[in-house]
Amino acid sequence: MKETIALITRYYAAFNVGDMEGMIACLAPDVAHHVNEGAIRTGHEEFRAFCAHMDRCYAEELTDIVIMATEDGTRASAEFTVNGTYKVTDEGLPEAHGQTYRLPAGMFFSVAGGQITRVVTYYNLADWTAQVSA
Known about the structure:
The protein is an alpha+beta fold. The protein has helices at about 1-15, 20-25, 45-55, 125-134, and strands at about 25-35, 40, 60-70, 75-85, 100-110, 115-125.
């Protein structure tokens, strides 16, 4: 359990400093990335492409992070607040013009062999849309 919490903590620390390769170092090569309101992306290259897209459209920092893990360390979850700026219009979403947002979110993880094998992201898209449309 302690190793899993440390792994997830490293993952979020890398996210918060914009270290995509640091995040990828926490992931298994065949990681399954379940994106909120999107398709499942598999593997490091698809994860890199997703992160590059996100970095282009959004600037985000996660705060208030609470990480929980099962005793055997094979599953974990985290709850946090996303503090962001919508920089560039994302296809199918409202027009971006530097709006800021603050959004509760959560993630679920599967872990094996000291690496994250599954990442599931959840946030309320309607809440985000309302914030950037106001």
